[in-house]
Write a structure and sequence with these properties.
The chain is α/β, with parallel strands linked by helices. The protein is globular, with a radius of gyration of 18 Å. The chain starts with a strand and ends in a 7-residue tail after the last helix. The structure holds SN-glycerol-3-phosphate and calcium ion (CA). Calcium ion binds next to strand 2.
Length: 253
């Protein structure tokens, strides 16, 4: 079953990387949540995509230069624009979550894909995941574009599945070989780089015992094609559309 992974939560419908976006993703039938992690000045794990607060909140400046308490004062719904060019989430008390907060909340049966954006957050992220419910359920994976970060996560916890995010236009086949050599469980190319027929790459990955994910798929025809080919999962901003397209989640055992 190809997993519907909500990219920064249901980020097409709610402000990215907020608890609301994660809650909506689960309500829409996502199989897993994808989120991004940075380290704050006081060593806390802030769940935010960018290095700075500027694009997504009403505050400015680098995450690494602020304490978590300072970051929690930011309005994480400030810049989300609704279809009518309004800002419907301003002042709605949406905050930048912490990774432990998400781990505590994450409902049973929902997976988690943790993208480490800041290499200095690797050890704390691995440590936070070590005692988590989602880790005990074997439903979490750590991914990064940075090979040294993935290697470090893998070294710190060899049983924690790690995946290699490929930048746009990066060749998937050499990355697959690299993943085998370095003990990564999966590669995650840019969706476009899978080409018109992702079948041969998925078959090759299977032969190597690796999984293939990809980012970001919002087109229903592509979702269907990837599911038929048995892709591990795809990241989407529209988990509701993905669920309708692929059909309901199988009932839990
Ligand atoms: O799942 C991978 C994807 O999230 C990588 O891109 O920029 O959204 O973090 P980005
Ligand atoms: Ca990400």
């Amino acid at each position: 079953m190809t997993l519907v992974v909500a990219h920064r939560g249901a980020s097409g419908d709610a402000p990215e990387n907020t608890m609301l976006a994660y809650q909506q993703a689960v309500e829409m039938g996502a199989d897993a949540i994808e989120l991004d992690v940075h380290l704050t000045k006081d060593g806390k794990l802030a769940v935010i995509h960018d290095e700075t607060l500027d694009r997504t909140t009403n505050l400015a400046g680098p995450v690494a230069a602020k304490t978590m308490a300072q970051i929690r004062r930011a309005d994480a719904g400030y810049h989300f624009e609704g279809p009518d060019a309004s800002f419907p989430f301003r002042g709605k008390k949406l905050r930048v979550p912490t990774l432990p907060e998400v781990l505590e909340w994450l409902p049973e049966g929902i997976g988690l894909v943790v993208e480490i954006k800041a290499p200095e957050s690797t050890a704390a992220t691995v440590e936070a995941l070590r005692g988590s419910k989602v880790r005990a359920a074997n439903a979490v994976t750590v991914i990064s574009f940075d090979e040294r970060t993935i290697d470090e996560a893998h070294r710190l916890d060899p049983e924690l599945p790690v995946g290699y995010l490929l930048v746009p236009f990066q060749s998937a086949e050499p990355a697959l070989t690299f993943a085998v050599e370095h003990g990564y469980a999966a590669i995650h190319p840019w969706e476009v780089d899978l080409g018109l027929d992702p079948g041969p790459l998925i078959t090759l990955a299977r032969a190597y015992g690796r999984l293939v994910g990809c980012y970001v798929v919002n087109d229903p025809d592509r979702m269907k094609q990837l599911a038929v080919l048995g892709l591990w999962g795809f990241v989407t901003d529209l988990p509701g559309l993905a669920r309708v397209t692929l059909g309901p989640r199988p009932a839990a055992d």
